[in-house]
Amino acid sequence: MTYQNTFKRYEIKFILTGAQRQMLVEAMDGIMKIDKYGKTTIRNIYFDTPDYRIIRTSLDKPVYKEKLRVRSYRRVTDEDEVFVELKKKYDQIVYKRRIAVPEYEAMDWLAAGGEKPRGGWSRQIEDEIDYFMQFYEGLMPQVFLSYEREAYYPAGAEDGDIRITLDSNIIARDRDLSLRSGVYGTNIIDRDLTVLEVKVPGALPMWLIRFLRENDIHKTSFSKYGTYYVTEVMGKHDKDRENNGGLLYA
Known about the structure:
Elements: E1 6-16, H1 18-27, E2 32-34, E3 40-48, H2 53-59, E4 64-72, E5 81-90, E6 93-102, H3 103-111, H4 123-135, E7 140-154, E8 163-173, E9 186-187, E10 194-200, H5 206-214, E11 219-220, H6 224-243
Antiparallel strand pairs: 1-6, 1-10, 1-11, 2-7, 3-4, 3-7, 4-5, 5-6, 7-8, 8-9, 8-10
């Protein structure tokens, strides 16, 4: 598999209504074009500690935060390759490191304490992931999260180095945590809404700045995994406490 294994960029997020999404697609005509994959269903398994230490830290909005996930772009078999991704954010800049390994190797390594795969030129990334796993003791699969994505890139070289993604139908669950399984679970935002992510090495292009300003669209710190944790995991915990006679905010 040929793929880019390191990324360094700004990732800026916005929430769009259905109407705003359509207007953006029209505004991108001639400037951006959809990639060759068209609409893709992305599947992720997020790893965390039993007490959700990683996502709880991330929600505190520290200067530095990180997360580990396994990603595929379709339903896989155990022999299909998936991406093991270590994503870090420091001072607003996102760094992503990833390796491609067979699904059974990835899950044996990350979830069952199996041997670390050895991929030659990707060894440094494997070592970084291994260190992450040792630092966050007790890492385990915690959430399956999927969404439908359309990705756009510049129509011409003069349009700069920018990538735009539109994510919708964002679904998550905390059971059946396998990329071999189908897509089902809880919608974490309204089905009419879209998460717009703009990935750039520097400033936004002027055409996009004008579009956002004219349509009163503002950036957000929205996190898919974080939203699921707050609405479902914490929500269930609070509901259980209420049912057991406890105080909601004790």
